[in-house]
Specification:
By secondary structure, this protein is an alpha/beta fold. It has 34 helices and 37 strands. About 40% of the residues lie in helices and about 20% in strands.
């Protein structure tokens, strides 16, 4: 991953430099490559959109910009989109883009002039916008008309000037501003969204020399924000600071973000907590903060240690709450004994709310349903939400549901403070801290409470969820699907109960999205640290470390599940706040992150997740008809052509009504997946072999397995060879390479060339010198004997080509393979001819201003040079060294020859340095044919140096309408002979000799035309 990132950075930098030099064709090539290497990177996407426009690919530019704007709302992106749609003469696209700009962004003089030009072109009657100072601008296509302005539903009297209309002083606090003409028709851009326009983003923290951080106005980015510093009561402003200096220290995915630097030295900040308030009147993230707390805490601790000294008489000092910043070292073992209450207490649910009425009300409705007829009190803490509808909805909800009570903050104080407000109101109760973006199923609270009192020293309990760090299910690695309905959450809750009811697992910390805290743990540990964690993130971890030091345990209730929509509360600044609070957490609890990392590596919740996966796996069968039978595939985990065949076979069998179960190799055994589960939603169905062999086979025996298909045995435990015997069914073997007799798999010997398939003694020598590419260590004779028995007992052994079948028979003389091609070549070629005839191949590339790769190669795109396309992942077996030597020779002798690798290699840089090869980057399967066609090559070269059993890239070449030059070796040679669609050359050729033949054969292909 790091390597791919580094390569993407080089590609992006090269493309950007070329763009600034006016080398647009080169820039386009390199930025397209960067986009393939770092898909979804916003900075690459924005630059590439511009490059695509210059290259003439307007559709591609629009597609990329639309995708980018779905992730990031930024003015330059909308302007770019409007420009692209204007070039396409798409009026609706132009107007949609400008409406986003006018309604949500502070207008600039430049943009006001630009929008006027656009709107006059498209006949827009009237339009409006507002700048950051509250000056409302309007314009009309013909004569100016009177306008009416309504602010949050109230008609407003405004002052008119030559520059525009001056909005009332409090315009920034409004939700919407509607602007209408004399006929009551809204001007284009109305309603305006002032709260968005003036919103600010920023973060502050304690730096080395004082207070540091950043701030900016995302919707008025050219304006320097002014931030204000207040005392802890927010009564006195002691400093106003304009931010003129741009910050380069902030890492952001948002394109063209213009962050401003905050630096305030110690001397300008008074002792005690301070509020840092942005231009929109809200505290920046990280505020309030006590800049000197750590220093005071250290000084007073040093003085307190003097109590143990006999030297002199000193005034006694003791740490006050305001000075409390002491490090509490994390230890792996709990040694203290907690102060445990002997009674159960009533239960209170605390739900802090701030925004998103829809999610919040869904949460409240689910909680209400789950506690019906139960004596559970719910405190909804309104952290000074600005969403009037949300607050009214909550008030109405509480009036209808007597268990629910609302507590209000006069100003926004952050999640920890909101929780503390609820805790203080809860008295001597157990509490559940619950995010307002959760959905709770029936039975969740009972399970958490049952676990909380199952052991005397359990302090906190956390359930499983789709998005909860170490408590995530089904995967802790990738993003899980979000259950958006209560019914979905109930399904997962049902699985958790069926698999793990009444069980718990000790964990290092709870998670604040849903955290049950027992009253005695809370009483002994205290409140959350709102004084250091500001808006939140990490405060529950700090609480748990303090409770742990007092002897309290934290556990996961693995029989409970609560859905969590996710953490989007702080927008783009979230990552900065996370990092800030993560650093604070490590200072407060040295060793915390190492402690968590160690636990995550050990994955203490794996068994519980797997039990849930097993329950869901078995329920999938129950949901199908009882007559449904299964087929098991055994394959490796390396993707490629093998995986493609596996998926094709699975689709065929699924159409026949069979359930296809796939066993893929892992480092410790194998993982089971239902082929119908494309998203891999049961990733914990992992079985460690040989220890869990009986568990795996028992599970499969219940599946009415009809037969097993062995596709690839690489990296699998030897027990898998006996699978069909344990399932008492037949099996078939599909030959994808030569792993059945070659432990190096691809028939490459010690010299890295085709070995010629020697006898057993030769294979023994080869493995001894060059090593094996299979996981197990087994001598060659025993390996061949096992393969022979396995193949002989198979119902059918399928080989994709006659060449493959013949090679297998050479090593296993009694074996007769059934030839079963992975693709139908005649159909591929016929379809390609039709597409060429109707102009469906290369149509888009012929409309472009540049020929792909011509800029990067500094060539004419094949007008004077022969251009050969090489497709796929080109490693050693696929001919990397052959390609490198050919390019070097072409460069040294200045031959009219160049190569475009549509794909990737182990070392792109070395090839690109020859200036005779450009590598596009790894492509998506659905893009392959069009991408190959777009490079306008004279032919495709397949440089593979081993006798491939098939070659899917050969089919891609034909689909793109190109002839193929390949070594006379393996299945590709067989297929080219059978179709006559290509040229075969001597496999011994390389370097100078190879280039001479390639030029000759490519000229022949060029002269003979496409397919």
């Amino acid at each position: 991953m790091e390597l791919a990132s580094a390569q993407a950075q080089i590609s992006f930098r090269t493309g950007s430099e070329a763009w600034h030099k006016g080398e647009y064709a080169k820039a386009w090539d390199w930025l397209e490559r960067a986009n393939r290497q770092a898909r979804g990177n916003s900075h690459v996407m924005f630059a590439l959109a511009l490059a695509r426009q210059t290259a003439g690919d307007l559709e591609g530019a629009i597609r990329l910009t639309e995708e980018l704007l779905q992730k990031y709302d930024f003015r330059e992106g909308w302007i770019l989109l409007a420009t692209f749609y204007h070039a396409k003469k798409n009026a609706s696209g132009v107007l949609r883009a400008w409406n986003a700009i006018l309604s949500r962004y502070a207008i600039t003089l430049e943009n006001w002039s630009l929008v006027g030009n656009f709107f006059r072109t498209y006949g827009v009657h009237s339009w409006c916008a507002v700048d950051g100072d509250g000056l409302l601008k309007t314009d009309f296509l013909e004569k100016e008309e009177k306008i009416s302005i309504t602010i949050d539903g109230k008609r407003s009297v405004i002052k008119k000037t030559k520059q525009g209309c001056v909005l009332p002083e409090k315009w920034k606090l409004a939700q919407i501003i509607e602007v209408k003409d004399s006929n009551g028709v809204a001007l284009f851009g109305s309603p305006l969204q002032p709260k968005t326009i003036v919103s600010s983003e920023g973060l502050v923290s304690v730096g080395v020399n004082g207070l540091s951080g950043w701030c900016w106005l995302p919707y008025d980015a050219d304006r320097a924000p002014v931030i204000n510093f207040y005392d802890h009561k927010k009564e006195t402003c002691f400093l106003s600071l304009p931010l003129d200096e741009f910050s380069s220290a902030v890492s952001s995915d948002r394109p063209l973000a213009r962050y401003r630097n905050i630096v305030v030295p110690w001397g300008k900040i008074p002792d005690g907590p301070v509020h840092v308030v942005g231009p929109d009147g809200r505290d920046l993230l990280g505020s309030p903060l006590d800049v000197q707390m750590q220093t005071r805490s250290a000084q007073k601790l040093a003085l307190d240690l003097n109590k143990c000294s006999d030297i002199g008489k000193h005034t006694q000092h003791c740490l006050s709450k305001e000075d409390f910043f002491l490090s509490l070292l994390v230890s792996e073992k709990i040694t203290a004994t907690p102060v445990v209450s002997k009674e159960k207490k009533p239960l209170v649910v605390i739900i802090p709310v701030f925004k998103n009425a829809s999610l919040t009300m869904t949460c409240l409705q689910s909680v209400r349903k789950s506690i019906e007829r139960k004596k559970v009190k719910v405190f909804i803490v309104n952290d000074a939400s600005q969403e009037k509808k949300l607050i009214q909805d909550i008030k109405n909800f509480c009036s209808e549901n007597k268990n629910f009570h609302i507590l209000n903050h006069s100003c926004n104080r952050g999640f920890p403070a909101a929780v503390n407000t609820g805790l203080k109101a809860s008295g001597q109760s157990d509490v559940v801290i619950l995010n307002s973006d959760t959905i709770v199923p029936t039975g969740w609270l009972e399970e958490l409470r049952r676990i909380a009192y199952s052991q005397t020293d359990i302090g906190t309990v956390t359930p499983f969820s789709n998005d909860a760090s170490i408590f995530s299910y089904p995967s802790i690695v990738k993003t899980n699907d979000v259950p958006t309905e209560e019914e979905e959450a109930q399904v997962y809750m049902g699985a958790a109960q069926a698999a793990n009811a009444g069980q718990f697992v000790d964990v290092p910390t709870a998670n604040g999205f849903c955290m049950y805290v027992r009253h005695d743990c809370l009483n002994q540990t205290g409140l959350l640290r709102e004084d250091v964690f500001a808006q939140g993130y990490g405060e529950e971890n700090d609480f748990c470390m303090r409770a742990r030091a007092l002897g309290w345990r934290h556990v996961a209730a693995v029989g409970a599940y609560v859905a969590h929509v996710g953490s989007a509360s702080f927008g783009a600044a979230r990552s900065s706040l996370l990092q800030r609070n993560s650093d604070i957490l490590e200072k407060l609890h040295p060793g915390y992150h190492a402690f968590i990392d160690k636990w995550v590596k050990e994955d203490g919740l794996f068994s519980a997740r797997r039990r849930m996966d097993l329950v869901r796996f078995l329920s999938e069968r129950k949901n199908k008809k009882d007559t449904v039978k299964s087929v098991v595939f055994v394959t490796h985990s390396h993707g490629g052509g093998v995986e493609r065949v596996v998926q094709q076979r699975a689709a065929v069998l699924q159409r026949d009504g069979l359930r296809v179960l796939i066993l893929r190799s892992t480092k410790t055994g194998c993982v089971l997946q239902d082929a119908a589960d494309k998203d891999g939603s049961m990733p914990s169905l992992v079985f460690s072999l040989p220890d869990e062999w009986s568990l795996l086979t028992r599970l499969l025996l219940a599946e009415t397995v009809q037969w097993v298909e062995f596709h690839h045995m690489a990296d699998h435990h030897a027990f898998l060879y006996t699978l069909s015997g344990h399932l008492t069914c037949a099996y078939d073997v599909y030959v994808h390479d030569y792993v059945w007799f070659c432990q190096r798999i691809s028939l490459l010997g010690p010299y890295g060339t085709y070995c010629g398939e020697p006898d057993v003694a030769g294979c023994v020598t080869c493995v001894a010198l060059a090593g094996r590419h299979i996981a197990e260590t087994i001598d060659v004779p025993a390996y061949l004997e096992r393969s022979q028995k396995m193949l002989a007992a198979a119902r059918t052994v399928y080989a994709p080509s006659h060449d493959t079948a013949a090679r297998m028979a050479r090593h296993f003389p009694d074996l007769v393979c059934k030839v079963f091609p992975w693709e139908q070549d005649k159909a591929i070629i016929q379809e390609a001819k039709k597409r060429i005839k109707h102009g469906q191949v290369s149509a888009q590339s012929n409309q472009l201003n540049f020929i792909p790769a011509s800029g990067a190669l500094g060539s004419d795109g094949g007008k004077k040079r022969i251009r050969l396309c090489v497709i796929g992942g080109i490693g050693t077996e696929k001919g990397y060294d052959i390609l490198r030597l050919a390019a070097l020779d072409a460069a040294l002798r200045d031959l009219p020859l160049e190569f475009v690798v549509v794909g990737h290699t182990p070392d792109d840089a070395t090839l690109i340095k020859t200036q005779r090869i450009f590598v596009t980057g790894e492509y998506r399967e659905e893009d392959a044919v069009n991408l190959v066609a777009s490079v306008q090559a004279d032919a495709v070269f397949l440089p593979a140096i081993w006798p491939e059993t098939w070659c899917f890239t050969l089919g891609i070449a034909w689909k793109a309408g190109l002839s193929v030059i390949a070594f006379d070796l393996g299945a590709p040679a067989e297929r080219i002979r059978a179709t006559g669609r290509g040229r075969l050359i001597n496999p011994a050729l390389s370097g100078k000799a190879l280039n001479a033949v390639l030029i000759k054969e490519a000229l022949f292909c060029k002269k003979s035309g496409e397919l």
